[in-house]
Specification:
The protein is of the alpha/beta class. Helix content is 36%, strand content 16%.
């Protein structure tokens, strides 16, 4: 499919010039960034399932083709391998985002409206930038010093079972004692182990982001620090002093360059959120997700004073889509409730983005639909279920995950109030594998509202 579309694009030029849109795609782990990008590109190359994208429905996208990305030092998003994983004879989920990557899709657009009779075509380049949401969490570090960050982290993790190993190791450390590299490495290793365990348990505040995705920085001093209780007296050469210095180096040499080189050039942004995963884990995970997403979305406040405003140079993200992923895990009758839950979860952060002038929307989507809907009798009533192929073992199974409330206010209040479990309901979750597909010519893989997401994000520019 990609090869056919690329062939159409050879030698094309735009009669009305070329417009480039930089679309940022982010979200925390398991939100589905890789699948979203793969599916978006596949369905723009073969547009039979994109009626909600007006330019596609009207036939004004004459051709779509992949081109070399514009940034030579950024890895290319491996679209072909990811598409093969999702649509091959043994479909499986591709490996998730571990670093920044980029892909350019060019669209040949026929003019519309008053320009339609003048002839000519134009080209729109869609540059899709994929980056881990955990890296955006680091933005919150920029306005904190080591003492503030350490205090907040240690307070937050004090009651978490996943942090027991790190807290035990921390009790053997005297922050006022002379710094020892081997001791620092061991403590940073314990902290990284805690972050991995917290991530696996469904927590979202797993930062600094590079501790989970270190890449070429693994083992470097800039990643060899950890939160400490502040000693009564701070002296040069102490463990506290050196780790505070490394914390500042992380902000200056890791966080700031990422925002300068990648984030500052984003025009439109989609933030993917695994709402159902957090609800399944429980109220604490939902409240944790709310705090983490507020930290992420603080990056999209272009009017914010300080270093970020200066770094962006007056640019702002024009549109932000908050997308609750895995909508195919719920019957469509609950999708509106899922959207309302997401909007309630992000309300304060979203209001700040609106105030800054960015246009925003919330939506429930499934970038790749992996289930079908069914109804089953249970306890004398009919319940709406979804059926799919289970990731573990591959057998078919139907799921009724529980009903989301009409209004999310009560659930969000429970989460904010520190409830240990939901008062009135249990929420199940299953891990579904991609369905085996038989695609007709001109159709991309099935999805839920991916076309409407595309219309909001860049349809106005087509």
């Amino acid at each position: 499919m990609a090869a056919r579309a690329e062939a159409l694009g050879q030698g094309l030029t735009g009669g009305f010039g070329t417009r480039t849109i930089r679309l940022g795609v982010t979200g925390l782990s398991r939100a589905g960034k890789t699948v979203f990008i793969t599916q978006l590109v596949a369905n723009l190359l073969e547009r039979g399932r994109m009626p909600g994208l007006r330019a596609a429905a009207e036939g004004r996208i004459l051709a779509a083709f992949l081109q070399p990305q514009p940034d030579d030092t950024v890895p290319r998003f491996d679209f072909e391998s990811h598409l093969a994983a999702l649509t091959g004879p043994d479909p499986h989920w591709p490996e998730g985002t571990r670093a920044v990557s980029e892909l350019r899709l060019s669209l040949r657009i026929a003019p519309s409206g008053l320009l339609a009779g003048l002839g000519g075509e134009r080209r729109v380049n869609l540059d899709i930038v994929d980056y881990p949401g955990e890296w955006l969490l680091d933005l919150g570090l920029m306005e904190k010093d080591f003492a503030q960050w350490s205090g907040e982290v240690l307070t937050r993790i004090a009651a978490r079972a996943e942090a027991a190993g790190y807290l035990d190791a921390l009790r053997t450390i005297d922050p006022a004692a002379p710094f020892e590299e081997t001791q620092a490495k061991a403590l940073a290793g314990h902290y990284a182990s805690y972050l991995r365990a917290a991530k696996a348990a469904g927590y979202s505040d797993c930062g600094p982001g590079r501790f989970l995705l270190p890449g070429e920085l693994e083992g470097s001093p800039v990643l060899t620090f950890a939160p400490l209780p502040r000693p009564d007296r701070v002296v040069r050469g102490s463990t506290w002093h050196e780790m505070a210095r490394r914390f500042e180096a992380y902000k200056a040499k890791v966080v700031r360059p990422f925002f300068r080189d990648h984030f500052a050039r984003i025009d439109r942004q989609v933030v993917l959120v695994d709402v159902l995963g957090a609800i399944h884990v429980g109220p604490r995970a939902v409240e944790d997700l709310r705090g983490a997403m507020e930290a992420v979305l603080s990056a999209f406040r272009p009017g914010r004073p300080g270093w970020l405003s200066a770094l962006l140079g007056g640019r702002r993200v024009e549109r932000i889509l908050f997308a609750a992923t895995k909508a195919d895990h719920l019957h469509h009758a609950q999708h509106a409730r899922m959207t309302r839950f997401l909007a309630g979860l992000l309300r304060s952060a979203r209001d700040r983005a609106d105030f800054a002038g960015a246009e925003t929307a919330a939506m429930a989507i499934a970038a790749l639909r992996a289930t079908v809907e069914e109804s089953h009798a249970r306890g004398g009533e009919v319940v709406d279920c979804v059926r799919g192929r289970l990731l573990d073992g591959g057998r078919e199974a139907a799921l009724f995950p529980g009903e989301l409330p009409e209004s999310p206010a009560a659930m969000l209040a429970e989460a904010h109030g520190g409830a240990e479990s939901w008062l009135d309901a249990d929420y199940a979750v299953m891990a579904f594998a991609p369905a085996r597909l038989s695609l007709r010519a001109g159709e991309g893989p099935p999805h839920i509202r991916l076309d409407r997401a595309a219309e909001f994000l860049f349809g106005d520019l087509l």
